[in-house]
Specification:
Elements: H1 9-12, H2 33-41, H3 43-48, H4 54-62, E1 70-71, E2 75-76, H5 78-89, H6 93-101, H7 106-119, H8 122-129, E3 138-142, E4 148-152, H9 153-162, E5 165-166, E6 169-170, H10 177-182, H11 194-222, H12 224-235
Antiparallel strand pairs: 1-2, 3-4, 5-6
Length: 236
């Protein structure tokens, strides 16, 4: 299923396209036309993406040092170019999951997560990506203005799950997780922070209870003179 044309011209030709499809469309069309044009015109695409296959793309992605979409004068990042190459290669799902679950190269994981979001079915997107919401590795991101900022893997994956646009790419709308749960396609997700949240709630309840007791004591003390006065009258 690999396609090695360096400029992807054959796959981008919409006249009588008969190749493999993703979500009933040409995979390369999952990126918008202006972005595709900038990628195929870029130096990185022409010089670094020539004749890559699933194995050599893994090596190339392992050398990435940041994520991002386009920056400056709409220049595509190597991250985006390799995503486009993945859409051209369409590697087997098992290979994509190997990219995703290896722990040595975090930018390869991020690239695979992006590819999963674009190409997998909705229920698989949640099942495959949600474990990464517990991954707090730092990611360097190239901003649209050309600067830099620090992101985290869990934040990047959360963006993929909830945002409509990430890294200069419009994302196909996902049905809500609740809908997929109601349809029986997903199990109810138990947050890894569930126990910690319960502990926090318990502490808050105890704190509120303690404050309530203190308020009652203060109220009693505040009426102490009157009470003592009444008691004095009685005693008198």
């Amino acid at each position: 299923m690999s396609h090695h044309a360096p400029d992807a011209t054959r796959m981008l030709d919409t006249r009588g396209y008969t190749g493999p499809t993703i979500h009933n469309t040409n995979p390369l069309h999952l990126l918008e036309t202006p972005v595709r044009d900038r990628i195929t015109d870029s130096y990185y695409w022409k010089e670094q993406c020539f004749a890559l296959n699933a194995a050599t793309l893994c090596d190339k992605a392992s050398a990435l040092t940041y994520i991002g979409g386009t920056y400056g004068q709409q220049k595509p990042t190597p991250f985006l170019c390799l995503l486009f190459k993945l859409l051209q290669l369409l590697p087997e799902k098992e290979i994509v999951l190997l990219y995703l679950r290896q722990r040595e190269f975090k930018y390869l994981t991020a690239l695979a997560a992006f590819y999963v979001r674009l190409t997998f079915e909705a229920k698989e997107v949640f099942r495959v990506l949600e474990p990464l919401l517990g991954d707090w590795r730092k990611l360097r991101r190239r901003t649209r203005e050309g600067g830099w900022r620090v992101d985290y893997m869990d934040q990047f994956v959360d963006d993929l799950l909830v945002k409509e646009r990430v890294c200069a790419t419009s994302l196909r709308k996902l049905p809500s997780r609740m809908i997929l749960e109601d349809l029986g396609q997903l199990e109810v997700r138990i947050s890894p922070l569930g126990e910690e949240i319960e502990d926090i709630d318990r502490d808050d309840d105890e704190e509120r209870s303690g404050r309530s007791g203190e308020d009652e004591v203060e109220a009693a003390n505040g009426n102490g003179n009157a009470v003592n006065g009444e008691e004095t009258d009685i005693l008198d």
